[in-house]
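Handout for the seminar on molecular recognition.
Each group receives one record of this type.
Step one: identify the two inputs.
Step two: read the structure output and locate the region that could contact iron/sulfur cluster.
Step three: write two sentences on what you found, then compare them with the reference statements printed after the record.
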Amino acid sequence: MKSPELQRALLAWYRRARRDLPWRRARDPYAIWLSETMLQQTRVETVLPYYRRFLEALPTVRSLAEAPESRVLSLWSGLGYYRRARMLHAAAKRIVREHRGELPREVEGLRQLEGVGDYTAGAVASIAYGVRAALVDGNVTRVFSRLFAVEDDTSASAGKARIWDIARALVASAPGDPGDWNQALMELGAVVCTPRGPACEQCPVQAFCAARARGLVDELPRVSAKRPPTEVRRVSLVLVSSDARRVLLARRRPDALFGGLWEPPSVEAETDAAAGALARRLGVDASALESVGEVLHVLTHRRMRVTVLRGPLPAKRRWPTPGPDYDAARAVPMADLGEIAHATLTRKVLVLAKAAAPSVRSRSSR
Ligand code: SF4
């Protein structure tokens, strides 16, 4: 597929209008890989401070490979989808072990790395190394389905294959840097050809847009209905010392949801009986627990409703693991919460518990 005028118009617009983002100033493959990993399912504005902090703390593949996992997860705390951080860490170790610390240049080599799919491999190869590699993400799918009026279901394999075919054909014939071409497509999808209310009047490629010509803009891309998220009920125990300086946290097993992160001991349960059993296991009399409210937390496939119970922290030196999802537990000084890897859900739970212990909030919300 050749569309030279479309390509020239889009590239000219990108050079003129692109947002000034720190990873666009980078040519370092590691920095580009990091940014692309962080940007998966996450907004640019959210990623910016994490990206800067992470690169400052771990500026090279080697430094990432050598860092303990707890450090990596702590730098990722609050960004969500923690599997990305664990995969990034594992891949950095592999790059040091098998590639002398340098990211592979070709898509095939990149695809061998933990957590690197077709999209990320295409992004790193094209942006960092100038390889004519295609990439497709949600933005690119939307742009192509509209520009070329692709009416297939783009969440089904035939529709996906069609979008990838277009991406490969266009990156092969794009003038200049293939990394610029790929970024121009993503930029168009992010700021002009948005999911709802695309700014067609300001679009640099409106003259080439088949969906616009045929009045299909609002109907594309077509995707089959998503499954609704599963409802999950949880009870979380926030056990706080009498001087309000320490709270009990437990670490999730690596293979559990939120693996490697610390949180107040929780149990998936609807019933008070399960919460009572958890409390007893930790040496707390269930009658000493008070309910401080409920937290709602929505993940891609789960809608979690968490009842937060607050209670006294028993004096103990060693803690049993609170349940099968955990591999460690300890009483953590509130002052250290900012250094401990935890999910946004934990922050919400601790902030709610702050209704009875204000010091929890000031530390956990850093
Ligand atoms: Fe998207 Fe509208 Fe541009 Fe077509 S004209 S590519 S629908 S923004």
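Reference statements: Residues 143, 146-147, 192-193, 198, 200, 203, 205-206, 209, 211-212, 217 surround iron/sulfur cluster (CB under 6 Å). Strands lie at 230-240, 246-252, 262-263, 266-268, 290-298, 302-312, 326-333.
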